[in-house]
Amino acid sequence: MRLDPVSLRLFVAVMEEQAIARAAAREHIATSAASRRLSELEVQLQVRLFERSNRGITPTAAAYTLLDLARSVLGEIDGIARQMREYGSGMRGHVRMVANISAITQFLPEQLQSFLSQHPDVQVHLQEKVSSEIALAVAQNAADFGILNPGSYGCELHFAPYRQDELILIAPKGHPLTAHRSVSMRQALAYDFVGAHTGSAINAQLTRSAAQLDMPLKLRIQVTSYDALCLMVAAGLGVGVLPRQSAALYRQTLAIEAITLDEPWAHRQLVLCMRSYEGLPPVARALVDHLMQMQAPTPS
């Protein structure tokens, strides 16, 4: 049995209007065609829905039962159409996103909150990875897009500017370097460092800088998060490097000081990467557009 939604809508209209002619006008169909559809519906269902007389039509008990069923079915059909339209316009769906810790701690909380408040039916699955792993995840279609530091990752990816950030040095209060408003890496390398985990862009930059200066990088300890790095620095285990806005989150509660890092590489550009913008699912494309358009927070 194949029930026609048009006939079901007409049937509901007849029940609500209590007249075929008014229901036909409401559904923009000729009265004769409406009458024929109702008769065909009765044949399909093998049940009489209306008693007909010179005074009009009278619904049977079966018609009242069908009314509830028809409204339910039509509601589900309308829901399917609405949800598919929302998918098509990027209003509903699941986005797979990877980003480095700098983007996650500085920019994404506010941006994702803004996007998800506008699109509550969207789900964002966000994973933190180092930049090399981000590029690989996007290239292998394990993620729709990522946010990372620029570089050569051996993958055919499209990159777009995202945000700029600034790396600074943090030191425990009372440390000799806190007497300076800004320091160079040559000054900082005289002291022990608390480093980020292996593979991080910051660690790689510290290693390159030390090699260029022909000085050792004395990594006393390595940690896997900014909060752990700040805790270790506050405990006096060394100095560390992290983005200025990330450091601002911990300076309020920990005994650490932020010092400007007088190095050209301290000012960085974060980028979005994807296999192709046109190939993104609509909901992922909508999130990318939002991330690129929304202004970055003012540094503290």
UniProtKB/TrEMBL annotation:
GO terms for molecular function: DNA binding; DNA-binding transcription factor activity. Gene3D superfamilies: 3.40.190.290, Winged helix-like DNA-binding domain superfamily/Winged helix DNA-binding domain. InterPro entries: HTH-type_LysR_regulators, LysR_HTH_N, LysR_subst-bd, WH-like_DNA-bd_sf, WH_DNA-bd_sf. The keyword Transcription regulation applies. Residues 1-60 form the HTH lysR-type domain. GO terms for cellular component: cytosol. The keyword Transmembrane does not apply. Keywords: DNA-binding, Transcription, Transcription regulation. Transmembrane segments: none annotated. It comes from the Bacteria. Belongs to the LysR transcriptional regulatory family. PANTHER family: HTH-TYPE TRANSCRIPTIONAL REGULATOR YBHD (PTHR30419), LYSR FAMILY TRANSCRIPTIONAL REGULATOR (PTHR30419:SF2). This is LysR family transcriptional regulator. It comes from Comamonas kerstersii.
